[in-house]
Specification:
The complex is a heterotrimer of chains A (349), B (289) and C (290). By secondary structure, chain A is α+β, with helices and mostly antiparallel strands. Chain A has 9 helices and 19 strands. Chain A is elongated and about 75 Å long. Helices cover 74% and strands 0% of the residues of chain B. The radius of gyration of chain B is 24 Å and the shape is globular. The two termini of chain B are 19 Å apart. The chains are: A alpha+beta (349), B mainly alpha (289), C mainly alpha (290). At the A-B interface, loops of A face loops of B.
C-alpha cells in the first residue's frame, strides 16, 4: 500500500489555478525530489502536503489516514524550511525539543532523543547556544535536528541548501544522503537544482506550471525523458535541441524526424572531428576546459551552437573548422509540440 | 492561513481599537458641527437656538482672524524652513564618523523630548529675559541694547522656541534617511569624478527628497496646533501679535466662553488639516506593502 | 606560451606610508561638537541653574563656576505641591500606556496575521485620526468632560491620552508583528502547536521587544502632552506640564527653583527618549521614513 498518496490535488490562489490536479504515490522510505523551474508549484505542493496551505480539491492520504483537512499540527510531518525558521529566543536544545515538549513527552525521553540527534549532526557542543550565535551551516543542521527528533512519518525539505555557499552545499548534500540511508525515513525534498535532484533522489518528480511532467528515477529521466521540457531540464550542460529544419544534414541520418520537429542530442553523444568528418560542419566558438572534461561549442549555422562533451583535453581552438559526428541511435526526437516521437535507443541501463 | 481559523476572531480583536477610534473621531466632529450652527455660550447654557452660519461669519470677521491666519502661516513657514534646512545641514555634518559621534547624536535629539511648557519657560526666562537672559548678556557684552523678545518680537520668539524643539526631530529623520543611502552609488559617483557639492546636488538631496517631504508634511500637521508655548509665554499677545488659529479658537472657547464661534473656527482648522493629511496619507500608503 | 607564476613571500615591507592628516574630517568633527553644544546650551543652562541658589541664579553676568546645592529640589515640593502634579503625570502616562497597549496589541496582532483586503485601509484611517488638530476637538471634549464629571480628573486625562496615542501604537505594534517571520510561526504549527500555544511560546516572547518600545514611546508622548493637560485640568489632575505653565509670569527670586522643578520634570523623559529614538522616528513619521 502506498505510504503517501495525492489524488487530483488542486490549489487555487484567487482565480489562479496554481496546482492543476496532481496524482502521486510515494512508498515508505522513498526519497522523492520535487524539481522544476521557479513558479512551477513545487513549494506550493510541499506546503499543501505540510498543511500550511489548504487543499482546494482532491485528497491527501497518509498511511491509510485521510489528512486532507487536518491542521499541520496533527499530521505528524516535520518540515525543514528554506530559511530554517529556528526559534530565535530558544537555545538549540530547546529548538529541537520544542515539539516533544508541546506534546508533554517524558523529559528523560526528550533529553535522550535530543542528544542522539545532536550526535548524528555534530551539534552536541552547540546545544546551549542560541541561533544567533551559529553559522548558516550550523543553523541548517539544527533545523534538520528539529525534524529528526520528532521521528515523523515524512520529512519535508523546502530548498534547504539554497542559502548555503557552494562548498557547504556539496558537503551538506552528501550528509543528507547519508542521513537518509541511516534513518530510512520517507522524505520529500524540493529544489530547483537538478544536480541535487539527480544525486539525492530515489525518484524525481518534474513539475511545470502546476502539473507533473514526469516521475521516475534520475537515470530514467535522463535517458528516457517523457517530453522536450524534461529532456532540457535534466542534464548539465543542457541537452542540445535543434529544430530539424535547421540541420538538414541530420535528416539523412535520422529518418523519422517529424516535420516541424526537434532533435535532442546529449553533449556526450556529439563527437568533434577534424574538418570534413562527421555529418555537420562548423566552427569552434568557445572551448571550456574543466580539467576532468572539456566542453566545445560549435557554431553550425543553427540558431544555437552545439555543445559537445569529451573527457580528453582540448584538441581544438576557437576559430578552428571542425566536423561534428552524431550517433543517430542516441538522438531523442520530438514533435512540434515537444512530445516524444522516438526515444533514444542507446539508453544505458 | 488555515481554513479552520475562525472569521470572528480577527474582528473581535480589532473591535476595541476600531470602535474607540471611531467614536473619538465621530463624536467630537458631529458635536463640533452641531455647536458651530447654534448659539452656545458655556456660561449661559440653555439659550441654544439655531443661528445658521452666523458663527462662521463671526469667526472670520473677528479682527484677530486675519492676523491669526497670517501668524499661523508665518509660524509654519519659518519653523519648517529652519528645521528642514538646519536639519539637512546637521544630518550631513554628523553623517561621517568622528570622535564622540554617538554622544553628539544623543545630545542633538534631546530638545525634542523637553516638555513644551518647560521649553517655553526656559526660553522666556533664561534666554530671552531682557535683564538676566543669556541673549541680553551677549548683547551687553558687545555694548548693544538687549532686545525685549516677548514684547517686541513675540511671534519670532515663539518661532525660535518651536524651531529649537523640532530641529532635532527633522535632524533625526534625515540622519535615518542618510543612513539608508546606497554606499556603492556614492563610490561610483566619486569614481566618475563628482566633487562633494556635486554629490550633494545629484545624490544626497534627491535621496532625501522623500524624507524632506515627509518632515514638511508632519510638521505642517503638528505645528498647526502649536499651543502650549503661546499659552505659557505671550498669551497670544501683545494684542494678537502671536496668536495663531489654534490659540484664537482656544480664546473663544475658554476665555470668551463662546463655544459656538470656537466650533466654527475648529471646523476651519480641521478642514485645513485634512487637506495636508490627505497628501500625507497617500505618501504613507505607498510605503505600506 | 610561457606562463609566469609569482610566489608571495609574505614578508612585510619595512616602511609604511603614514596617511596624511585629514583636515576636513577634523574640521567637521569640531564643527559638529560646537553646533551641538550650542543647540543643547539651553538645557545645560537649565541644569546649571537648578543647582544654584536663587541669588546665584540671577547674577549678571552668568555665574559659570559655583558650588552646587540641592536646596532647590528640597523646596520645590513645599512651594508648589510638586508631588501631586508628579503623581498625576505618572498616573496618566503609565495608565494611558497600559490601556493603549491593551487595546492596540490585539488590533495590531489581528492586522498582522489575519490580513484582509481592508487591513491597509483601516490602518490608514487610524493614522488619519491622529492627524486632526487637537484644538478641533477642544470644545466638544471639554463639554463632554464637563457633563460626565471627568473634567479635572486623572481618569479623564488618561482616556484622552490613550485615544490620542492609539493610532501610533497600533501602527508601531503592527510593524513589529509584521516583522516576525511567519515561517517561524509555521514551524511552530508543524511542531504541533495550537493557536494558543503559538501565541504563548513563540509570538509573545518575540513580540515583547515591540511591546516594550511602543510602550516607551507612548510614555514619552503622554508625559510631554501639554494641550489637554492645560485645558482640561485645574487644581486636582494637573500634570507637570500644567504645573510648569503656572509660572509663566516671573515672581522674582525663584528661577533656581523653577529650573529645579523643570529639570525634575524633563529628566526622566529625555533619558527615555534617548532609548526610544528609533521608535520615535518610525512612530511619528508613520513609517514613511525607514
Amino acid at each position: 500500500m502506498p505510504f503517501l498518496q495525492l489524488k487530483s490535488v488542486e490549489k487555487f490562489f484567487g482565480t489562479n489555478r496554481a496546482i492543476k490536479g496532481v496524482d502521486l504515490t510515494i512508498e515508505k522510505r522513498e526519497f522523492i525530489v520535487f524539481v522544476g523551474p521557479s513558479g512551477c508549484g513545487k513549494s506550493t505542493l510541499l506546503r499543501l502536503i505540510a498543511g500550511l496551505e489548504t487543499i482546494d480539491g482532491g485528497s491527501l492520504v497518509l498511511d491509510g489516514r485521510d489528512i486532507t483537512d487536518l491542521p499541520s499540527s496533527k499530521r505528524d510531518l516535520a518540515m525543514v524550511f528554506q530559511s530554517y525558521a529556528l526559534y530565535p529566543h530558544m537555545s538549540v536544545a530547546d529548538n529541537m525539543s520544542f515539539a516533544l515538549r508541546l506534546a508533554k513527552a517524558d523529559p528523560k525521553v526528550i533529553e535522550e532523543k535530543v542528544q542522539r540527534a545532536a550526535k548524528i549532526l555534530n551539534l552536541t557542543q552547540y546545544l546551549a547556544r542560541t541561533p544567533r550565535e551559529l553559522s548558516g551551516g550550523q543553523r541548517q543542521r539544527v533545523a534538520i535536528g528539529r525534524a529528526i527528533v520528532r521521528s515523523p512519518k515524512v520529512f519535508l525539505f523546502d530548498e534547504p541548501l539554497s542559502n548555503l555557499d557552494a562548498a557547504l552545499r556539496g558537503q551538506t548534500r552528501v550528509e543528507i544522503a547519508k542521513l537518509h540511508r541511516d534513518l530510512g525515513a520517507t522524505t520529500i525534498y524540493v529544489t530547483h537544482d537538478q544536480v541535487e535532484a539527480m544525486t539525492l533522489a530515489d525518484r524525481v518528480v518534474v513539475l511545470r506550471d502546476g502539473l507533473i511532467e514526469q516521475v521516475g528515477t534520475p537515470l530514467e529521466l535522463y535517458d528516457k525523458p517523457a517530453n522536450q521540457f524534461v529532456a532540457q531540464f535534466i542534464g548539465t550542460p543542457q541537452m542540445n535541441v535543434v529544430a530539424a529544419a535547421e540541420l538538414p544534414q541530420l535528416q539523412t541520418a535520422l529518418r523519422d524526424v517529424p516535420s516541424g520537429g526537434f532533435v535532442g542530442l546529449r553533449p556526450e553523444s556529439i563527437v568533434v572531428k577534424p574538418a570534413g568528418g562527421g555529418q555537420v560542419q562548423g566552427t569552434v566558438e568557445l572551448v571550456e576546459a574543466l580539467g576532468a572534461e572539456t566542453l566545445i561549442y560549435v557554431n553550425t549555422g543553427a540558431k544555437l551552437p552545439l555543445i559537445a562533451r569529451q573527457s580528453a583535453r582540448p584538441s581544438v581552438r576557437v576559430g578552428d573548422k571542425v566536423g561534428v559526428e552524431i550517433d543517430a541511435s542516441s538522438a531523442h526526437l520530438f514533435d512540434a509540440q515537444g512530445r516524444v516521437a522516438r526515444q533514444s535507443a542507446a539508453a544505458a541501463h | 492561513m488555515q481554513r479552520t481559523a475562525p472569521r470572528t476572531l480577527p474582528r473581535l480583536l480589532m473591535a476595541p481599537a476600531v470602535t474607540t477610534l471611531f467614536l473619538w473621531m465621530i463624536v467630537p466632529l458631529v458635536m463640533t458641527i452641531y455647536f458651530s450652527l447654534i448659539r452656545y455660550n458655556l456660561m449661559q447654557p440653555g439659550a441654544n437656538e439655531f443661528i445658521g452660519l452666523a458663527n462662521f461669519e463671526f469667526f472670520v470677521t473677528d479682527p484677530s482672524f486675519t492676523a491669526s491666519v497670517i501668524n499661523t502661516l508665518e509660524l509654519l513657514g519659518s519653523v519648517i524652513a529652519i528645521t528642514v534646512v538646519g536639519g539637512v545641514a546637521l544630518a550631513l555634518l554628523v553623517n561621517d564618523p568622528f570622535p564622540g559621534r554617538g554622544i553628539v547624536r544623543m545630545l542633538l535629539i534631546s530638545p525634542f523630548f523637553v516638555m513644551p511648557t518647560v521649553n517655553a519657560l526656559m526660553w522666556k526666562h533664561m534666554m530671552m529675559n531682557p535683564i538676566y537672559g543669556v541673549f541680553a548678556q551677549i548683547a551687553q557684552f558687545f555694548g548693544a541694547q538687549p532686545i525685549d523678545f516677548m514684547a517686541d518680537w513675540p511671534l519670532s520668539s515663539i518661532i525660535i522656541m518651536v524651531a529649537w524643539q523640532w530641529l532635532p526631530f527633522a535632524c533625526l529623520i534625515f540622519i535615518t534617511a542618510l543612513a539608508s543611502m546606497n554606499r556603492e552609488q556614492l563610490e561610483a559617483a566619486r569614481m566618475d569624478g563628482a566633487g562633494y557639492l556635486q554629490q550633494l546636488r545629484f545624490m544626497y538631496l534627491p535621496h532625501m527628497a522623500r524624507s524632506i517631504a515627509v518632515v514638511i508634511m508632519i510638521e505642517l500637521i503638528f505645528l498647526l496646533s502649536v499651543f502650549a508655548e503661546i499659552f505659557t509665554t505671550t498669551g497670544g499677545g501683545p494684542g494678537d501679535a502671536s496668536t495663531n488659529v489654534a490659540f484664537l479658537i482656544f480664546k473663544e472657547a475658554l476665555l470668551n466662553f463662546d463655544a459656538g464661534v470656537a466650533s466654527a473656527g475648529a471646523l476651519f482648522a480641521v478642514v485645513l488639516a485634512n487637506i495636508v493629511a490627505a497628501f500625507l496619507i497617500r505618501m504613507i500608503g505607498k510605503n505600506l506593502d | 606560451m610561457a606562463s609566469q607564476t609569482t610566489i608571495a613571500t609574505g614578508a612585510a615591507s619595512t616602511t609604511r606610508r603614514r596617511a596624511p592628516f585629514d583636515w576636513v574630517a577634523a574640521a567637521r568633527g569640531v564643527a559638529a561638537w560646537v553646533v551641538t553644544l550650542l543647540i543643547v546650551f539651553p538645557i545645560i543652562f537649565l541644569v546649571m541653574t537648578a543647582f544654584k541658589t536663587e541669588q546665584q541664579a540671577i547674577e549678571v553676568p552668568t555665574l559659570w563656576f559655583f558650588a552646587p546645592t540641592l536646596e532647590n529640589f528640597a523646596e520645590v515640593q513645599e512651594r508648589s505641591n510638586y508631588l501631586l502634579y508628579a503623581k498625576n503625570s505618572i498616573i496618566t502616562s503609565i495608565g494611558s500606556t497600559l490601556l493603549g497597549l491593551a487595546i492596540a496589541a490585539p488590533a495590531a496582532y489581528s492586522m498582522a496575521f489575519f490580513r484582509t483586503k481592508r487591513t491597509r485601509d483601516i490602518l490608514m484611517w487610524m493614522l488619519s485620526t491622529k492627524m486632526m488638530p487637537a484644538v478641533g476637538a477642544l470644545v466638544p471634549i471639554y463639554a463632554l468632560a464637563q457633563r460626565s464629571g471627568l473634567l479635572d480628573t486623572t481618569l479623564g486625562l488618561t482616556i484622552i491620552f490613550t485615544l490620542s496615542n492609539l493610532p501610533i501604537m497600533v501602527w508601531m505594534l503592527y510593524s513589529h508583528f509584521k516583522d516576525i517571520p511567519h515561517e517561524i510561526l509555521e514551524a511552530a504549527r508543524m511542531d504541533g502547536a495550537t493557536v494558543g500555544m503559538e501565541f504563548r511560546y513563540v509570538l509573545l516572547p518575540l513580540g515583547m521587544g515591540g511591546l516594550a518600545s511602543t510602550g516607551l514611546l507612548c510614555l514619552v508622548l503622554s508625559w510631554n502632552e501639554a494641550f489637554w493637560s492645560l485645558n482640561l485640568t485645574a487644581a486636582n489632575a494637573g500634570t507637570l506640564a500644567a504645573l510648569i505653565a503656572q509660572y509663566s509670569s516671573p515672581e522674582g527670586l525663584f528661577w533656581a527653583k523653577l529650573s529645579a522643578a523643570s529639570l525634575l520634570a524633563i529628566a526622566p523623559i529625555v533619558v527615555f527618549g534617548w532609548f526610544s529614538q528609533k521608535q520615535l522616528v518610525q512612530g511619528l513619521t508613520f513609517g514613511a521614513v525607514k
